[in-house]
Amino acid sequence: MARRVLLIVPTLLLLGCADGQPTSPGALSSPEVVRATPGLLVGSTTVLLTGLDAPKGIAFGPQGALYVVESGNTSINGPCIVEPRGEKCYSGTGAVTRYWKGRQERVASGLPSVYVAAVNDIIGPADIGFLGVGDAIVSIGWGGPPAGRALLGAYSTGFGDLIKLAPSGHWKVVADVSAVEDAENPAGGPVDSNPFGLLNEAGARFVADAGGNSLIQVMANGATSVVATFPSLPAPPPFSQSEAVPTEVQRGPDGALYVSTLSGVPFLSGNARIYRVVPGQAPTVYIDGFKTITDFAFAPDGGLYVVEYASAPVFFGGPGKLTYVAPDGARTVLKSDLTFPTAVAVGPDGAIYVSNKGNMAGVGEVLRIVP
User: In the chain, what are the domains?
Assistant: First the structure.
């Protein structure tokens, strides 16, 4: 996309080192399954996690514990660079929080993040995935021309990358996703990259680059390739078009990849959609008619849970929504009073988990919803 995408998360190191702050051994691996709360009624919503810093992607570890990434807070702990949207300042407050045995615990901290005060945008860890017991893979956003990362000097490590996060809390870069946009700019337009949604599979990872309007495949050895690009849509004057802004990627029940789009400025109702992607073929529209989709998840019956960041006709006004789309296309709004929701996941207990207040530092939440 161009620089304007990052308004979705107003969203999304140690000095000279690719390792983050260590945490307690085994922090990313636990045998605890998130279980249904005794007495919890169908149709209920409970606040499971609180006090999060701009929460984004949710995942369940291989043992069943819940993890959520936090993009960071508004503190400035390093250099600033000047961009068209304003100063982008290093914060380094990205984190991962776990819910285990009824306890909320931040298990990794000090991950790369930046803050753009002019638009209240916190950019950092965006999504998380697991494969086997132990390490996690985390996508780290950037939101701008990839070449600008070098201006942060020793603080630039991790931005626009996939990182591998060990149970100790140490991390290392495993792939430079934004380098694809820098070298190829596959969708055309201004050079801009913001790795966001992540699908972690055996042998390959897939990343939705919200800035580059592309889907990138990352092999186990770090090699990258473009799987698909997503077109802009018409927009009324004074806007010439609304960019796609891909936000999430999932593997569907039919084996195809599915990618959601936020749609860019002016964020018109109906422009957000989910594409079906088969490598080697042009993406096809699977479902449309939404506004500002930030995430989606497949239901056990093959339907979809879709999260919309805001519901007003244009820009980011109005509450966020959670909608269930049945296999036959019928839609049911499950929640219409969310506050800037950014992620959704279906738990092993069958409940729906949503990152809420996803653009807010210190007050972010994860909700547990039983429809």
Answer: 3-369 (2.120.10.30)
Are 283 and 263 a contacting pair, CB within 8 Å? no
Task: List the Cα angle 210/213/215 in 5-degree steps.
Answer: 85
Is the preceding omega at residue 186 within 30 degrees of 0, hence cis? no
Identify whether the C-beta of residue 224 lies closer than 8 Å to the C-beta of residue 175: yes
Q: For 176-198, give the DSSP string.
A: ESHHHHHHH-TT-SS--B-EEEE
**pTM check: above 0.70:** yes
- The single-letter code of the amino acid at 65 is A
- Considering only the C-alpha atoms of the chain, give the largest distance between any 2 of them, rounded to a whole number of Å: 55
Separation between Cα atoms, residue 73 and residue 83, nearest integer Å: 19
Distances (CA, A) of 12 to 49, 80, 172, 251, 360: 19, 17, 20, 23, 11
- pLDDT in tens for each of the 371 residues of the chain? 333 333 333 433 222 333 333 333 234 543 334 433 333 445 899 999 999 999 999 999 988 999 999 999 999 999 999 998 899 999 999 999 999 999 999 999 999 999 999 999 999 999 999 988 889 999 999 999 999 999 999 999 999 999 999 999 999 999 999 999 999 999 999 999 999 999 999 999 999 999 999 999 999 999 999 999 999 999 999 998 999 999 999 999 999 999 999 999 999 999 999 999 999 999 999 999 999 999 999 999 999 999 999 988 777 789 999 999 999 999 999 999 999 999 999 999 999 999 999 999 999 999 999 98
DSSP secondary structure string for all residues of 101-136: TTEEEEEEEEE--EEEGGGTEEESEEEEEE-SSS-E
Taking alpha carbons only, the member of 153, 156, 151, 246 closest to residue 195 is 246
